[in-house]
Design brief:
CATH topology of the largest domain: Aspartate Aminotransferase, domain 2
Radius of gyration: 22 Å
Keywords: Pyridoxal phosphate, Transferase
InterPro entries: Aminotrans_V_dom (IPR000192), Aminotrans_V_PyrdxlP_BS (IPR020578), Cys_dSase_SufS (IPR010970), PyrdxlP-dep_Trfase (IPR015424), PyrdxlP-dep_Trfase_major (IPR015421), PyrdxlP-dep_Trfase_small (IPR015422)
Largest sheet: 7 strands, mixed
Strand order of the largest sheet: 4-10-9-8-7-5-6
CATH class of the largest domain: Alpha Beta
Shape: globular
Distance between the termini: 37 Å
Organism: Bdellovibrio svalbardensis
CATH superfamily of the largest domain: Type I PLP-dependent aspartate aminotransferase-like (Major domain)
Number of helices: 14
Bound molecules: 4'-deoxy-4'-aminopyridoxal-5'-phosphate
Pfam family, one: Aminotran_5
CATH architecture of the largest domain: 3-Layer(aba) Sandwich
Catalytic activity: (sulfur carrier)-H + L-cysteine = (sulfur carrier)-SH + L-alanine
Number of domains: 2
Length: about 400
């Protein structure tokens, strides 16, 4: 472990945000499930792009236009490789996971869901993977139903199977719960959904920073994620879709770039994926995501996974030893996320005390209100870990929670 700790101490040094103090204390940033900090290589790449490569893409008849287009399309290629897609034509650039799910609902959903059909999600979904389906269902006279979870935070597989019927047209689930950390078996759930003829959408927002994904191996039809949870920039994300499906789908938004020919009478649309990318894109988002994937690849998922699991284990053990502390979500297969409450204390009060100690966590419903209803609590405190965290962060967390307990109970 000690060579691993030395290695990750160097990784930590790549994150300028961690050199600052907060409320006079060293910053322990334990909110990576909300957004990850950005390494210097990503910040430098975006600065370089704005300094020397700024130009619009896909239309410049000049040198910088070509440089920017090349950088943008090279990011698409990089993402295709990162996800194991068959072709970069299957990669659509969007604003993030939220826009990605909305895009799928309003294009694929629009042509494939009819009155009386069902869209199956799970009780652990983020609102971004609930509300767009409800909006579609309302438009179409269809229904959104959710598979339940077990008390340990795992998906209730029997309930999932029971709710899969020939009415199910779309199954959309998270690869990893942002609140509980529970990982779902993407390949198994996809296979079960395909067995009833449904198409599969995976919310990859939390998984992409934790583990390698291969969309061809999983065989999902769509996969979405946000760059900002993967050491990349805000406001940028990806929809992967199987090309054969993308080719059947109508455009998402109308405007420049997504067209083949426009007359006042009629417009024909561009090829996939450009058909889904109207207007000037978030070029530095793509460029920054490229640098973020490079950053991950230089560390390697084997190391990332082993290190994050070690942090999760140690933090879970130490938090569990605190009296009156309840952890939500104890699935065997989970990401580096711990949700907890101090019995009798409000999660926001705990969060505020932790903040005063320099420990950044999230306190609230984590955009998972149906899950909170299932757990019977209005909110939780959530600590989430990433490659730049260390044992000192865990000790700071534990010390601050003990202090919160003394102050609040
Ligand atoms: N799904 C999950 C599981 C998430 O954790 C998040 C972000 N908290 C989202 C969807 C939404 O992502 P974004 O806000 O980047 O669109």
């Amino acid at each position: 472990m000690s060579s691993m700790n030395d290695f990750f101490a160097k990784v930590r040094g790549e994150f300028p945000a961690l050199t600052q103090k907060v409320h006079g204390k060293n910053l322990s940033y334990l909110d990576s499930a909300a957004t990850s900090l950005k390494p210097k290589s990503v910040i430098d790449r975006i600065t370089h792009f704005y300094s020397y490569e700024t130009s619009n893409v896909h239309r410049g008849a000049h040198y910088l236009g070509d440089v920017a287009t090349q950088a943008f399309e090279s990011a698409r290629h990089k993402v295709a490789g990162f996800l194991g897609a068959a072709s970069s034509d299957e990669i659509i650039f969007v604003r993030g996971t939220t826009e990605g799910v909305n895009l799928i609902a309003q294009t694929f959903g629009l042509i494939s869901v009819k009155e009386g059909d069902e869209i199956l999600i799970t009780e652990m979904e983020h609102h971004a993977n609930i509300v767009p389906w409800q909006m579609l269902a309302e438009e179409k006279g269809a229904k959104v139903i959710a598979a339940g979870i077990l008390d340990n935070g795992e998906l209730d597989l029997e309930d999932f199977k029971r709710k899969l019927t020939n009415k199910t047209k779309i199954v959309s689930f998270t690869a990893c719960s942002n609140t509980l950390g529970t990982n779902n078996d993407m390949k198994l759930l996809t296979k079960l959904a395909h067995d009833v003829g449904a198409k599969v959408v995976i919310d990859g927002a939390q998984i992409v920073s934790q583990a390698p994904v291969n969309v061809q191996d999983i065989d999902c039809d769509f996969f979405v994620f946000s760059a900002h949870k993967l050491f990349g920039p805000f406001g940028f994300g990806v929809v992967y879709g199987k090309k054969a499906l993308l080719e059947t789908m109508p455009p998402y938004q109308g405007g420049g770039s997504m067209i083949a020919k426009v007359t006042i009478a009629k417009t024909t649309y561009n090829d996939v994926p450009f058909r889904f990318e109207a207007g000037t894109p978030h070029v530095e988002g793509a460029v920054g995501l490229h640098a973020a994937i490079d950053f991950i690849e230089t560390i390697g998922f084997d190391k990332i996974h082993a290190y994050e699991m070690e942090l999760l284990k140690v933090a879970t053990e130490k938090l569990s030893a605190i009296p009156d502390l309840k952890i939500f979500g104890t699935a065997a297969n989970k990401g580096p996320i711990i949700s907890f409450n101090l019995k009798g204390a409000h999660h926001s009060d705990v969060g505020q005390i932790l903040d005063q100690e320099g420990v950044a966590v999230r306190a609230g419903h984590h955009c998972t209100q149906p899950l909170m209803a299932r757990l019977g609590v209005p909110g939780t405190v959530r600590a989430s870990f990433s490659v730049y965290n260390n044992y000192d962060d865990i000790d700071a967390l534990v010390k601050a929670v003990v202090k919160a307990r003394e102050m609040l109970l």
